[in-house]
Amino acid sequence: MTANSYLEYFLTLLGWVINNGLWNILIGTGLFAAPLAFKVVGIWMKVREEGEDEGNKGMLSLPRIENALYGAFFVMLACCVPLINLSLSTMQYDTSRAKMCGTWTTQSPDESGYSSVVSSLGDQTAAVPFWWAVVHRLSKGVTQAAVATIPCRPDLRQVRFEVQRTSISNPALAEELQDFTNDCYALALYTWKQQDQGATTDKDVLKDIEWLGSSTFRSRYYGELNSKMPRSNFPWSDARDSGRPNTGRGGYPTCNEWWSTADTGLQDRVVNQADPGMWLRLSAALKMMGKSTADYKEAVIRRLVSPQSLNISQGGQVYAGYGGNADFTTMNTVNRFGAIAGGALGSLGAFPAFDAMRQALPMVQAILLMAVCVMLPLVLAFGVYEFKVVITLTFVIFALNFLTFWWELARWLDSWLLEALYSSDTHSRFNLAGFQNTSDDMVMNFVMGTMFIVLPTLWVGALSWAGVNIGNVMSNAIGTGVSKAQSSAEQAGGAASKGISSFAGGVNEGSK
């Protein structure tokens, strides 16, 4: 048996361990036969209600009772009696997608954060009834085959999240970066402004001078500027440091040396602050998109040394949406600006909720699959071991497993739109139609966030159209499962939204 997530890996075993325990309770107490007794009595009562013209009551009831008992015994043998052994040693964590796309190989569950839980279940064994083992393999096989039809594309939103949550944790390095800003970057920027006098119109140059490691500043100014304090990572050099006090704590490197020296320079030390696994995943993801190592390395370093997150986009012509009006008169511009402001306040609560939902959905799927495994013997017993109950439960398990495909499809669409949105020159900070496109980008993020719920809802709804009445049950279960994580994430955004509203109210009062 295979699992698509760490949580599913050990919850599957836990579910079947409890399933076996419940079935043993039913067998030990004899309660497994109680539904059959009620079924036999029900058949006999129905036969007695029939008219005299139907013939001998005993001859009528006997084949009906036989059919009911034979069918029930077959269901018990196929769906209730544990036959196929299951343990963590026989469970497999599915890495086929990562291997097929050639990105990276994920850690095994016993090396992940769930290792303590996995080790506590290491000596547990269970057995799976024959039919449910077949259903599990078929469901996983069909799901993996469907996922394989989706073209390989990295999860850019997850990669972006990993980069954004990476920060410089060493306070000494952060302080040294501040010194570099004061001793090198600020002076270089001031000198450049004095010399340029607003003459430069090259967008690449204007973008390059926005950060500490500017190639423009390194080629023009950093070679002539020095650290004002001695640096222990750079030994004293008479040729460079003569005329400065030799305190014995190191030399006074030039800004170029201070930034670019291998291992001891600020650039390499900043790079080492990031998790090596993040660099590996980032490299694999962006190489699939044809991006060079230098491009994404510079982008991550920019993010790490910046006091604020980089503005990936500040408006830019993507496509003309249905919102607003192409004629940017005063009233249309005001209306568009108001819509953007309202959407931005709403996004403070919605976007964190979407991120939490993306993380919560596979967890909810794993827990629901475990719950279905646990309840199988009880549901079959309450259903008097009828075939229609088995068929319904089969569709439930298949539908739950196939949700993985819909979430992978939603991730692919999300990543494709992110790449289309931000990888071209259409997103320019100099575009005068930025208001229009900022709104369209925001709406696109809202739409893609909801796709992780809408696509699975459409799927279970389609099963209901086919006559399997599980759509409402599964939709409610999934919605309830992610609502707590979603509402918790919204609280932070809601607090920020209220703070902004209060601030705006104060500004309005003060301006009166």
Automatic annotation (TrEMBL):
Keywords linked to the UniProt accession: Membrane, Transmembrane, Transmembrane helix
Can the keyword Membrane be found in this entry's annotation? yes
Q: What segment(s) does the record annotate as region Disordered?
A: 493-512
Provide the TraG N-terminal Proteobacteria domain boundaries: 8-484
Q: Which residues cross the membrane?
A: 21-47, 67-88, 337-354, 360-382, 389-407, 446-468
Pfam families assigned? TraG_N (PF07916)
Q: Give the domain of life.
A: Bacteria
This one is known as Conjugal transfer protein TraG N-terminal domain-containing protein
Q: Please tell me whether the keyword RNA-binding is annotated for this protein.
A: no
